[in-house]
Amino acid sequence: MEKLLSNLQKDFPQVSFAAGETFSWSSRKQTVHYPHKLEDATKAVWSLLHEMGHALLGHTTYQSDFELVKLEAAAWDKAAHLGKKYGHSIDVDHIQDCLDTYRDWLHQRSACPKCTITSLQRDMHTYCCYNCNTQWRVSRSKLCRPYRLLQKETALS
To answer: What are 121's strand-pairing partners?
Structure first.
């Protein structure tokens, strides 16, 4: 991990690296964060490459939950290419397991709390069921359970 980190710092001076609690990409600070303690060195390398994928692709923000899933998939694709360049092969099953967490999160958020039909997102915080017209609000957080706050039922305009 340290050798990879050193190589990434040398090859991508526009990106900063900082020890933190978890792996993450801060577009505002142009910084890849990585944890102090590493439980699994191999998965740590893969996660570092993934966050570099976000950095190199210029990921800053997203406008919908589906767009977030697309950004995550693109970052893993970039990570796989970077991994080859630096001699690290990322397990495809690991990538799919990580993407499954986002797909499951998206499915839970988009399921209508009244009729359970997978529904459409209207804006960052609101979904609307095309089947029963129920609307509900969701948190912007990717890290919380998808609690839904039902809104008054309205017909789609």
So the answer is: 127
pLDDT in tens, 90-121: 999 999 999 999 999 999 999 999 999 999 99
- Expressed as residue numbers, the domain containing 47 is 2-108
- Between CA 145 and CA 33, with CA 79 as vertex, the angle to 5 degrees is 60
CA pair distance 116, 59, nearest whole angstrom: 32
> Do 100 and 122 lie in a common domain?
no
Residue 24: φ, ψ to 5°:
-165, 160
pLDDT score, position 145: 45
Domain identity same for 104 and 117: no
Note whether 74 and 62 are within 8 A (CB). Answer: no
Query: Are residues 26 and 67 located together in one domain of the fold?
Result: yes
pLDDT tens-digit map of 14-34: 999 999 889 999 999 999 999
The 10 Å CB-count burial string (b at 16+, else e) for 28-46 is: eeebbbbeeeeeeeeebbb
